[in-house]
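The authors assume throughout that readers already know how a fold can be written as discrete tokens. Each protein is reduced to its one-letter sequence and a matching series of backbone shape codes. I therefore recommend that a typical entry be quoted early in the introduction. For illustration, here is how one protein appears when written out as sequence plus structure tokens:
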Amino acid sequence: MSYSLQLYTLRNAISEDLPGTIKRVADIGYTQVEPYNFVATAKELGAALKENGLTAPSGHAPLMSQDQDEIFTAAKELGISTVIDPFLPAEHWQKAEDIQATAEKLNQAASKGAGYGIRVGYHNHAWELESIIDGRTALEYFESLLDPELVLEVDTYWVAVGGQDPVDILAKLGDRVKFIHIKDGPLTRDNKAQQPAGQGKVPVMDVIAAATSLEVGVVEFDDYAGDIFDGIAQSLAFLNSNTAAEGANA
């Protein structure tokens, strides 16, 4: 199992010292990261990743609101092979026709991305699970409208906050899910209450096992009350030890 870190987790540290923050991530033991806002930071970020032996298999960028050619060009420079649109507000997920329009935009982005050799995906929050369209969650309805080459990055914590069982949702979405966000906590919207993996209410290893076509599990905190570097270290230690234990028992 391959683990990465969503760099939005460290946004405050990155704004103060990008190279130093990337070095700390590598020192903790991460070998992969998931950048955000990478068009603006491509040159500095690329140098820091190279210097610390890190790769970025995926990255977040607002494909439906910013210049796609600029995004795909920066992604290619950074070695990002999957660009994931990270966010579309709740009002876009309440009606079938709005979801159809979003799917069409993302399908078009995927077609353009293919010209750069880059795959396109989408990352959910809670509202795609809270909204029900024709008897299923808006996320499931959305998935049914996507072209085959598109992928999903399922934020498993927000699935649970949205009132759904992440294990069940991952089973329903099947091979479309190539990435997940791994986070833990009390399953509330209080981001500061989020916890390292294995310390909250998410059955983290069961969730990972349910994503049968998973390529990368991405650790993320939306926020954290403690020392964030300690938090990401605890998450990685939990994942590595449990992955090793499962491997030994296989």
